[in-house]
Amino acid sequence: MVEAINEYLSKCPEEVQNHCQRTGMLMDALLKEIDQSHKMKGYRLDGCSPYYYHDLGKCIVPGGVLKKKQDLSPGEWKIMKRHTRFGSILFDQLRELTENSEEKDFCQIGGIVCRDHHERWDGGGYPSGLKGAAIPFLARVCAVADSWDAMVNNRCYRRRLSADDALSEIEKGIGTQFDPEIAAAFLRMKKCAIRRESIKQRSVEYIVR
Ligand SMILES: [Fe+2]
Ligand SMILES: [Fe+2]
């Protein structure tokens, strides 16, 4: 099953594959921070969690749209937004193909995260305009990790933000774009990691000098 999903993912540009992987790792850490990672244990297959593939549907979006350096036209933007539905359709299809209940669960969760990770806490997201707790929990977790990773890495259409600027963007999105509790936990975790990193850096500089 994971092999079949990876085959779809391999059709995405490398930038998308790497983004999916980093976002998945970040979600692992965030779920641990909010003490929910134990709930995901039963849903892993071959060491992968179903939310490692949130942008899987981009394998169906034309490369010219995905890699465009200028602003997208309204039509291109419409197609880009469809990656959410494309991903959930791919997972639905794989779910129908298997008789194995663990694989079925994996595909169901993967499909939900694909479909709903661009929903916003205030109801202004897509594809369905779901609001607040009506957005599935893992999709709310993904929304924060996904936005962070998109901001702190270079994209074909823009330069990356500094960690400080990305932190304040997440802060601004509390209660509008993001679930307040999940975003607060993310900020706590990130600030702590950044502090640890700078202490490590300072001690390396001290030893080198
Ligand atoms: Fe996405
Ligand atoms: Fe994404």
Automatic annotation (TrEMBL):
Q: Which InterPro entries match?
A: Cyclic_di-GMP/3'3'-cGAMP_PDE, HD/PDEase_dom, HD_GYP_dom
Domain named HD-GYP: which ranges? Answer: 1-202
Superkingdom of source: Bacteria
Among Pfam families, the record links this protein to: HD_5
Q: What is this protein called?
A: HD domain-containing protein
Q: Which organism is it from?
A: Eubacterium limosum
